[in-house]
Amino acid sequence: MTTIKAAMCHELRDPLTIEDDILRAPETGEVEVMPDAAAICHSGISLADGAWGGALPVVGAKMGAVVLQRGIPWAVELYQQGRLMLHELIAGQWSMDQINEAIADTKSGAAKRNVIMF
Q1: Residue 15: CB partners within 8 Å, gap ≥ 6?
Q2: Domain count, the chain
Q3: With helix as H, strand as E and coil as C, how does the chain read?
């Protein structure tokens, strides 16, 4: 078990709160990824706004359906070839404490992709 910082949604359309959460150990066929940053995207905002339903509280997930063995090498290769302009996709870098401001920036259309630095 690993303790992580999570952006928790307790009430739909309310600001997220940063809390400690317990991440269970990976099971057979799973891998644990501990990034130094995560992007705020419209799917995560829609989750907190209630677009997908479900029970609260909820923590959004990143890369939940990605096959890392294929996806990461492919993205790296495209980036190295100059075909994936990752740096151009990032509008701003925000701290965990600024997550709600970053979400508002993304919702307003001022940014397409903000990055939260852990």
Answers
A1: 100
A2: 1
A3: CEEEEEEEECCCCCCCEEEEEEECCCCCCCCCCCCCEEEECHHHHHHHHCCCCCCCCEECCCCCCCCHHHHHHHHHHHHHCCCCCHHHHCCEEEEHHHHHHHHHHHHCCCCCCEEEEC
Q: Look up the domain containing 31 and give its range.
A: 2-117
Q: Can you give the pTM of this predicted structure?
A: 0.55
* CB-count burial class (<10 Å; 0-12, 13-18, 19+) for 33: exposed
What does the pLDDT profile of the chain (118 residues) look like in tens digits? 778 888 888 888 888 888 888 878 888 877 677 776 676 766 777 777 877 677 788 776 655 555 667 777 887 888 899 887 777 778 888 898 898 898 888 888 888 788 888 7
3, β-bridge pairs: 22
Domain CATH number, residue 37:
3.90.180.10
